[in-house]
Amino acid sequence: MNLEFLSNLLGEDSPAPHVYAGNRTLGFLILEDLPGTDRLHLTLYGNDPTAATQALVRYAETLERLDFKLSRAALKDVEQAANILSNPGAFSAFTHGDPVFSNIIESQGALAVD
């Protein structure tokens, strides 16, 4: 239903695949195949900062078109994170808060959280 909503809301410019059919009771959904598409996280984790920047701008533009509103608390958190990342102190570090063993990297005798 969410994909159908996005397709209807954004029309031909929708990045969402077209929903052909589905049945909630039977548990199936048939979607349009979107060849030639890239996953956002792969672009962001890639080695091309220009492509990553452009992808984030397109993402923000999509949220703007959907009239997505951040709560004041979320916006404050984003601003604080941007400020910390722009002006790191001697002991500042950024982590996603999920330091499980599979997210810890060992490199050159030091540990880091992925």
Task: Characterise this structure.
Strands 1-2 form a two-stranded antiparallel sheet. It starts with a helix and ends with a strand. The radius of gyration is 19 Å and the shape is extended. The mean pLDDT is 77. It is of the alpha+beta class and 114 residues long. It has helices at residues 2-10, 40-45, 49-65, 72-86, and strands at residues 19-23, 28-31, 104-107, 110-113. A hairpin with a 4-residue loop joins β1 (19-23) and β2 (28-31). The longest helix has 17 residues, at 49-65. The chain contains four helices and four strands. The chain has two domains: 1-36, no CATH class; 38-88, no CATH class. Helices cover 41% and strands 15% of the residues.
Number of strands: 4
Profile the largest sheet: 2 strands, antiparallel
Mean pLDDT: 77
Structural category? alpha+beta
The order of strands across the largest sheet is 1-2
Helix share, percent: 40-55%
What distance separates the N and C termini?
34 Å
Rg: 19 Å
Low-confidence stretches: none
- Separate helix tally: 4
Fraction in beta strands: 5-15%
Shape: extended
* Integer count of domains: 2
SSE order, one letter for each helix or strand: HEEHHHEE
